[in-house]
Amino acid sequence: MRRRAGPTFVHAGAGVLAASFGMALAHLVAALTDPAASPVLAVGSTVIDATPTPVKEWAVRHFGTADKTILIGNVLLVTLLAAALAGVLARRRLGAGLGLLGALVALAGAAALHRPDATPRDVVPSLVAAVGGLLALWWLARPRGPRTGAPEDTTAGPGASRRAILAGSGVLLLGGVVAAGAGQLIVRARSRIADIVLPRPSTSLSPLPTGLEADHPGISPFRTPNGRFYRVDTKLTVPIVDHRTWRLRVDGMVDRELSFSYDDLRDLAVEEHDITLTCVSNTVGGKLVGAARWLGVPVATLLDMAGPKAGADQVLSVDVDDFTISTPLAVLTDGRPALVAIGMNGEPLPRAHGFPARLVTPGLYGFVGATKWLARLTVTTYAEDRAYWTRRDWATDAPIKLSSRIDTPRPLSTIRAGTHAIGGVAWAQHNGVAKVEVRIDGGAWQPATLGPDAGVDYWRQWYLPWDARPGSHQLAVRATGRDGTVQTAVRASSFPAGSSGIQELVVNVT
Ligand SMILES: Nc1nc2c(c(=O)[nH]1)N[C@H]1C(S)=C(S)[C@@H](COP(=O)(O)O)O[C@H]1N2
Ligand SMILES: [Mo]
After folding, report:
1. Which of 51, 125, 241, 416 has the fewest CB atoms below 10 angstroms from its CB?
2. Residues 451 and 474 in one domain
3. What pTM value is reported for the model?
4. Nearest protein CA to atom 6 of ligand 1, as residue
């Protein structure tokens, strides 16, 4: 085969363009079927699954919620580098270039099929990527110009074929942008939650009182708005579940297996509860904690209806993608208001937070009690079944550790001398916060003023007026639980046992 002219970067660019075009087409097809089957996302999910636990912890700790964007960025980068290589290979041997690109797409297809809930149709986006990408690369990289046995080409000079390639590249680029954009629009349209009227709770709570944030800006709002609630899960795309066909099953070691539609759940006696949710991966002073008013059916009600058999000790909750979380049966039946929630702060659950229904277990970290996109509650035993994180050697029972956080002033910030409020939030395991104390420059612990009380499962705001003098100052905070436990200095290295260490920070006063 003839060697084609042109600098290497042009051929690399052809590979990148072809691969991008294929991925864009695939994204559009996935948007119409299952967004998670889009090749880059499918590969990303497989990477997440295969990532060893310590690396996962490291990624969440360092990148927080941005870990996903970074992962997808890396998968894209590697894909495009390989595609560039395919373009350069295709310059000498078209077959080799096409082969490399084909292998890439085959990997993506395998990843799409490897997902736990995959159906054969999940390979379709990758097939589309293969057809689009390979055709594009073949067209861009095939030898052109005079050649024996191809008399029709002799009329076209090298200038003409260069123009054709430029025009063709423009078409591929435009087509790719349009396909990817249309895919995004379709996903957004499919994600809208419309026409859902939440039921009135049978036990209605009075509205939450105004929090300390009204008078002391910088303190976390008493109720976290849905749009600002932290998000932690293993998904690269938020599942789009159709609540009209969705069902919640209760099965396993029960007398009666049950199945509920969304409307069934709405019709069951629903309750409202103010509950703080937090992630075991939250670092000292971190943002992975939020507080909301949840509306839902008590898990205990559903379990009572099903009748758990003797010997069961675990409820394995399974999401719509077969992701599992395990919760001690004893915790779910000890009287605390664990919910299958359908509402969050007066709205249907946002998709990112588990629409149509999720588990919320007061007092437990999210990875053992807050399953989103819930599909099944299986009553079973720890001996019989292991959940996602349990298989990765995480604890099976993980009560929230007594914690406190300084929201204002910000660490390492510079503030003016004068009166300031040092303020923040504190939260505890199903027994509430009794006291918050602040220590300035290593002095005595001074009691802070607490904000309104919304029950043992809800966080507590606090503040302490401070006459800040010029200089560098060290602030620390600790909470005391209603059971008398005092928060102790736990080094952050105790992660992932729940980093509840005392937060210390430095501010500069001028
Ligand atoms: N289906 C599903 N549910 C899940 C998870 C998940 O990865 N998948 N992550 C859990 C973890 S670790 C936490 S901390 C909470 C976070 O809930 P949020 O994203 O609504 O704040 O969801 C829990 N529920
Ligand atoms: Mo978590």
Report:
1. 416
2. yes
3. 0.82
4. 233
